[in-house]
Amino acid sequence: MTCPICGKPATERYRPFCSRRCADVDLGRWLTGAYAIPAGAEGETDSPPPPDLPPTQTDRKD
Ligand SMILES: [Zn+2]
Fold first, then answer.
1. Is residue 20 part of a domain?
2. pTM of the entire predicted model
3. Ligand 1 being an ion, which residues bring their Cβ within 5 A of it?
4. Between 4 and 55, where is the model more confident?
5. Domain housing 4
6. Total count of domains within the chain
7. E strand map for the chain
8. DSSP 3-state of 46
9. How far is the CA of 12 from the centre of ligand 1 (A)?
10. DSSP state of 18
């Protein structure tokens, strides 16, 4: 197994990373990605909710 960050052979202690540094890098990427993901955009819903249209032309003019 190689380090997904730098491609060096992973060590037993920090696997799947090669060092603490690469593990921190991966953690930083994960946190950054987590913050970058907007709410509700995790793929749980394929279709967006219907737009909330304001009521127009519903009043009778009689
Ligand atoms: Zn590495």
1. yes
2. 0.52
3. 3, 5-6, 8, 18, 22
4. 4
5. 1-36
6. 1
7. none
8. coil
9. 12
10. S
